[in-house]
Design goal:
The chain has helices at about 30-40, 55-60, 75-90, 130-145, 170-175, 210-215, 235-240, 245-250, and strands at about 1-10, 10, 15, 45-50, 65-70, 95, 110, 120, 150-155, 160, 165, 220-225. The protein is of the alpha/beta class. The strands form three sheets. Strands 1, 4, 5, 8, 9, 10, 11 and 12 form an eight-stranded mixed sheet that branches. The protein has a two-stranded antiparallel ribbon with strand order 2-3. It has a two-stranded antiparallel ribbon with strand order 6-7.
Length: about 250
């Protein structure tokens, strides 16, 4: 499973990159990376809007991989993450099969390597509980026996969906195709029921995350007791309200 953290860059309202804010037990970035690794995500990719600087260095310091997103070049964090997955997925290999009576069979193509799931945890959701990520991963395992499996799994609290989300490996396989084909250029090997009258699945590359549920052919929501899936830290007011002690230590002089 591949972990992805949208982190952005410096926030002038906060005086620093949001990912570098203190959460009391580490920065927002450190907390997110630790939670992803705790459920088996490897590698962990962090989307940043700078090619160097404090945030870029902090990402490398925690052993994650920074991905510099440049929208002016037509890039999105999802498309860059898919490029990483494409590079790490083994290509089919030719194999020689020997007959018992001597001689060789013609070379046969091996099976392509497995495509991983993608777990997406925005850095501005620092109050998401570890139990929520474990529930999503457990839901992913259970989805393995479903036919078709859900393309996307997301948590829900009191009837309202939130984040983080997991993209099922079969949905990642579909997204890997640049024109609707599979990662190896053939029709995607998937059981997903993709509606022909809906948006093309690969069009979700550059959609905001909130629209993924509309592009995905099927979504499974997992009820959790975690209001943190809805609590984003966007402003100083948000930060002061949710982290009053570290806010006073960081922004107020005594």
């Amino acid at each position: 499973m591949v972990g992805v953290i949208p982190a952005g860059g410096p926030d002038f309202r906060l005086g620093k990159a949001k990912a570098l804010l203190d959460a009391g037990d580490g920065t927002f970035l450190e907390r997110a990376v630790a939670e992803l690794r705790a459920v088996g995500a490897d590698p962990v990719l962090v989307g940043v809007d700078e090619s160097r600087g404090p945030l870029h260095a902090a990402v490398r310091a925690v052993g994650a991989r920074p991905l510099h997103v440049a929208p002016d070049r037509g890039e999105s964090l999802l498309s860059l993450a898919l490029d990483v997955i494409r590079d790490m997925t083994p290509e089919p290999r030719a194999q020689e099969v020997h007959r018992s009576g001597g001689g060789d069979e013609p070379e046969a193509e091996g099976a392509p390597g497995p495509v991983p799931a993608l777990l997406w945890l925005p850095v501005d959701l620092p109050l998401v509980q570890p139990e929520t990520l474990r529930a999503l991963v457990a839901g992913l395992r259970e989805a393995g026996s479903a036919s078709p499996p859900p393309a996307l799994l997301r948590p829900s609290h009191q009837g309202k969906a939130g984040e983080p989300v997991i993209l099922h490996p079969e949905w990642v396989q579909v997204l890997l195709g640049e024109d609707g084909t599979g990662a190896d250029g053939t029709e995607p090997a998937t059981n997903l029921e993709i509606p022909s009258d809906g948006p093309a699945p690969w069009a979700a590359w550059d959609r905001p995350l909130g629209e993924w549920g509309q592009a995905a052919p099927s979504v499974r929501e997992i009820e959790v007791e975690d209001p943190g899936i809805h609590i984003r830290i966007r402003t100083l007011t948000d930060y002061r309200r949710r982290f009053p002690r570290v806010f006073r230590r960081r922004f107020q002089k005594w």
